[in-house]
Design goal:
globular; 354 residues; 15 helices; alpha/beta
């Protein structure tokens, strides 16, 4: 059993949301951490139907119990109305909840009750190197990705294929997020090709045959459903002209490999380098969340082409990711350009295979 690094509150002490991409292990973590909790799984059709028309049924059921349980509700975004009942039970009955889901999009856009600051927020990401310990292998991770079931499988491709199909069916089609599912499916493939790169909505729109605003909306869906996230440019107090566009990173490099039809990635190639950068971003994001650091992450790039992959905490740390085994002077051009800024003061680690 892999011990996850995310630390959750003890049972009954706090109400909290647990968000994370599909299949990162949220349900498994909650079962292992809270084996005695009362579980409400909204993925089960009969459970969903029981509370759909009458969400107050949950409150009535809990009120008949001899003691107030700690309650885990899985896939809470499927039934936003249930959050009003959660609010009442939290305030008036002292019941505490773990509210788990893969997307807050429907809740936020539908004006759902997010408990007004009464609930903590946690995120679970795919596997990180520290969780795998001695079993961690970089090449395996850059090919299979970070999703536990896929990473630990000897035949990961069918699982990734099913993952994409389930995402399109459960997250996109079922929630009515797009009108044209085949076009969105093609967008996923095209967007994967530009993983870790600057996003040009117009270029992707031409390839998909849709408007730029449509593509922008598609990226919002990826972000809201936690399938990826933006890495904005660092533009504060620039002493030279810098790029302001954002980059986009998918949440799982195995997913990118499949969508972009990369095949196996091997050390030394350009695609291996892109996969390596995605993994570095994944490790930084996960550590930032698990350590409760709340540091802002950016990249830095000048109009002349000098670039640093990651800026942490508003220039506390500047990180360059290079998949080469030996780092040479050419690899450090971006960091050297950054050191010439009058306001420069961060640590400057380089992540490499060396």
């Amino acid at each position: 059993m892999i011990k996850r690094w995310l630390k959750l509150p003890s049972a009954g002490s706090k109400t909290f949301f647990l968000w994370g991409p599909r299949q990162t292990g949220k349900t498994t973590l909650l079962k292992e951490t809270f084996p005695d909790a009362l579980r409400v799984d909204l993925l089960k059709a009969d459970v969903f139907r029981r509370y759909l028309s009458h969400p107050e049924t949950l409150r009535q059921e809990i009120s008949t119990l001899a003691r107030r349980p700690f309650v885990v509700i899985d896939e809470i975004q499927k039934l936003p109305a249930l959050l009003d009942e959660v609010h009442v039970m939290h305030e008036e009955m002292g019941v505490r909840f773990a509210l788990c889901g893969s997307s807050a999009r429907k809740l936020k856009r539908g004006g759902a009750n997010l408990l007004g600051g009464r609930a903590l927020r946690f995120e679970l990401h795919g596997l990180v190197s520290a969780e795998l310990g001695e079993d961690w292998d970089l090449v395996t991770m850059l090919n299979r990705g970070f999703l536990p079931s896929v990473h630990l499988s000897d035949d990961p491709v069918p699982l990734i294929e099913a993952y994409v199909a389930d995402y399109l069916k459960e997250e996109v089609a079922a929630e009515g997020l797009v009108r044209n599912l085949p076009v969105f499916s093609e967008f996923l493939n095209i967007a994967a090709l530009s993983d870790t790169e600057l996003v040009n909505f117009s270029t992707i729109a031409r390839e998909c045959g849709v408007a730029s605003l449509t593509v922008k909306g598609y990226y919002e869906i990826l972000n809201d459903t936690l399938l990826g996230r933006w890495l904005p440019a660092y533009t504060r107090r620039p002493k030279r002209r810098v790029i302001g566009a954002s980059k986009f990173y998918f949440c799982d490099v195995g997913l990118v490999n499949f969508l972009a039809k990369r095949g196996a990635v091997s050390p030394g190639g350009e695609l291996f380098g892109k996969a390596f950068e995605n993994w570095c971003h994944h490790e930084l994001v996960a550590y930032n969340v698990y350590a409760r650091r709340s540091e802002e992450l950016h990249y830095w790039r000048t109009a002349a082409g000098a670039e640093v992959d990651f800026i942490v905490g508003g220039m506390k740390v500047a990180i360059e990711a290079k998949s080469a085994r030996a780092v040479n002077s050419d690899h450090l051009k971006g960091l050297r350009a950054l050191t010439r800024l009058p306001t420069f003061a961060p640590a400057i680690p380089v992540i490499s295979r060396g």
